[in-house]
Amino acid sequence: MGIKxxxxxxxxxxxxxxxxxxxxxxxxxxxGVGVTYVATRVGDPLAxxxxxRGYGANDANASDLxxxxxxxxxxxxxxxxxxxxxxxxxxxxRELELVDPIQQHEADHVKxxxxxxxDLGGKAVAQxxxxxxxxxxxxxxxxxxLAGTFEELGVKAYHGQVTLVKSPEIxxxxxxxxxxxxxxxxxxxxxxxxxxxxxxxxxxxxxxPVLKAAMPFxxx
Amino acid sequence: xxDTTADLIHGNASAVPAGVAIGALNNGFALASxxxxxxxxxxxxxxxxxxxxxxxxxxxxxxxxxxxxxxxQYLMQIGADEASHVATLTATIQKLxxxxxxxxxxxxxxxxxxRKSYLTTAHVFENxxxxxxxxxAGFVKDKMILQAAAGIFGVEARHAAVVGNLLxxxxxxxxxxxxxxxxxxxxxxxxxxxxxLVDPNKVVAAITY
Lengths: 220, 209
Prior knowledge:
The complex is a heterodimer of chains A (220) and B (209). In chain A, 52% of the residues lie in helices and 5% in strands. With 220 residues, chain A is mainly alpha-helical. Chain A has a two-stranded antiparallel sheet with strand order 1-2. In chain A, strand 1 and strand 2 (10-14) form a beta hairpin. In chain A, helix 2 (64-87) runs antiparallel to helix 3, helix 3 (93-119) runs antiparallel to helix 5 and helix 4 (140-159) packs antiparallel against helix 5 (168-191). Chain A is globular, with a radius of gyration of 19 Å. Helix content of chain B is 57%, strand content 0%. Chains A and B meet through strand 2, helix 1, helix 3 and helix 5 of A and helix 2, helix 3, helix 4 and helix 5 of B.
């Protein structure tokens, strides 16, 4: 076990293995004030036409309402996914206890984001039709694998909008949801033998790549 | 980022029409009082104090040999995350021209008596950390700092959930704390961590000048 001294010569940091050390070194330099760190690229092409979905042409131009509708779409997708997965009765015991509340959380997120859009005088996007690959709900492993994909995608999606949301209230609301998605992502990873802590700081993705990843699950 | 920083000054809700209350999302984001933080450096030093406490907590806890196997691996990883947060916040404060607070003297009492006391204390720290970041985020003016703080906040939520699960706590109210995270005001966070600080006044003075 290697020990690195980082605070005034006091050894406070011990790494479990070489991978942890490398991951730490990579992330320690992540935040650079005054460094050209661009969270999102202006002009990222979206995976599909924006006109009929109500999103802005790119992240930088997206209004708070656009961002809320984007979040709403992802929450709708997640809620529908867990509703179908729990209906299929694939889990039992502790696993079921851990996954069951996630469905309720996602449904609450849908409701809260919708209400926020309406309160702001905006028009909430309709619930999208969803489709999941054949076999998704035929066994526990397939269900939880896709759950992990959705949760990590959701986390990255919320963090990808942090610098773009204009209203502090909406930002706070989005953060309070994003933290819950992080909990979900970690728990799904933990029960499937994945890594609940992929990085010391959450990764983020702009709208384009997130929508590209989500598109296969949104039916025309 | 000069034209955008002002947008995030706490209380500037220009994008939200007057009189609109986002009632569905009462998460305590705006709960801290205006005098809690005067600038980003104060927020960052507040976060740094908590991260120092967490990093040192896991360093001592992991040395006490209370956990094994997968559980130990998780706790080592969490400890490395906290140390990484300390390094990140320290570097950020320095780059902003501020002075990072020093590591506080700590005493975790009986936290390392056994596995259960270790994990139970860890669970408290993680959930307070989640609430502290959310409660302070509204004060951060620089969007890049906000991005980093949000990124750390999310990882603290991961830690909280996994530690809650290691303890076998009930899912809702143990592993998860409801459908929305809730912010915790600075004064309440400081009160909660005071028992672990040898001299709480020193820490409070360091983060509020």
